[in-house]
Model the fold of this input.
Amino acid sequence: MSLGPGQQLLEVVAAVILVTAWVSLVHRRLDALVGLYALQSAAMAGVAVLVAYLYDAPLLYLTAATIAGLNAVIVPRVLLRIRRDLEIPGEVNMFVSVRTSALAGLGCLLLAELVVGPLTPLAQIPAAGLLPISVTVVLIGLFLAATRRKAFTQVVGMLEMANGVFLAGLALTFGLGLLLELGVAANLLILAIVGRLFLYRMKDSFDTVDADTLRALEG
Amino acid sequence: MSGWGEAQTAALLLSEVLLALGLGPLLIGLVRRVKSRSQRRTGPGLLQPYRDLAKQLGKGTVYSETSSGLTRYSTWIGFGALLAAVPFVPWFFLPSPIGFSGDLIVLVGLLALSRFMTAVTALDAGSTFGGMGSTRDMWLGALFEPTFLLVIFAWGAPSGSTQASAIVLHGASLGLTHLSPALLLASAAFAVLLLAETGRLPVDNPATHLELTMVHEAMVLELGGRDLALIDWGKSVRFLLLLELFVAVLLPWGDALSLGLASLALALGLLVAKLFGASLLLGNLETRVAKWRLFRVGDLAVLSWVLALGSISLTYLVGVG
Done:
């Protein structure tokens, strides 16, 4: 474990990402959830800057700037605005309890460690914790999208999944190539816009954004 | 064992206990001060807790008619348990004069003993609020003590020891690499636990006057005079102990390794600075959060447990020590 201070810092930032994902499982306020997503994205930008500095990949600075601007500022603002415009009630409604969610979050980490932990020595990865943590964030995002009632929370879950995938990309390939990343960033924006349209339509037709009502017959 | 001589050991032990007794109320006063300032109130002065203690100690004591003889001793035992716990926390010099391997687990036991004694005192007076407070407090203890042990194991993993001074010495020798993800996760778990164990917001409101929401305050409603002073003083020592354990493990640098006057003074100054910094953060946090519904505190306990176990799994499964 002879890590340089740079790799050490990288792991610490990755741990911050992990903690934001966990806390987003126990929080019951939508606004706080969006704030956590913004924090997580800011930490992602930090990871990109560190990888760029440590492995001398100047294009990653641009990636970092994109993440910092788009994921950490614009997308959260769009989300908060949607919530305000649609007057979505501020609390998270869930199918499973907070405690079960927190334990599931721990389960995600253990699963990720058991499955991708052994791969770490094979691949050239800047820091050992990065790959399991990125897979954990993907799993937690999936869990968030699957177990929350409101379409709004499901969108946040998807966005967290995207962050996890992005982190894995950074860990494995030192950046996926600028063009691809700009594409991913554009996709995110589109996801936010489509989510917005979807939510507006849903609110219009059903007077609610509870995705559970989509199962019932209208009448 | 430690490398101190017998006279030095005695002097160091005495200085630790006196420091804890003297500094505890000051920290409580500081947190109250920060809270009142950040809420735009003037608030009581920094020394108010000392004045309260002096007033209570000067008063006589009255016992409830239903109480047995127990109350006459239980407050002393609880206070004594906290004083006995003082040397197990690393203060401003290392190694600890009476440290032995596993002493942090003894610390958990002594804290539990003082908690138990307070609960028993509350039950002894025979009032309903006392019973309610003691049930809640024991419930909180049952929720958070397993996490406390897990955090200790997570902290001890890099040095392979659950002895406080060994953990701190090992951490200090690592330099900045000491601040690993596993340590930060475990410390985050401990920060949550600290709020619960010392009865701060959002778990318990130390300034509340509403009996129905009280935890610790409900237990001391029936006490007055010397007994109340012992409980309050003990609570401030408990707060100081846990806060010091937290800052000592998180920022292990700057402890005196020899008895030179300069290094002792520097270490003592650093200790006070770390504690004051932590109190400032805590006071600000207490302004920002509201008290949580009692049954939501379980969520907090699960979060803290998950953080601690996550830290251990990172150390042993990924090797991110």
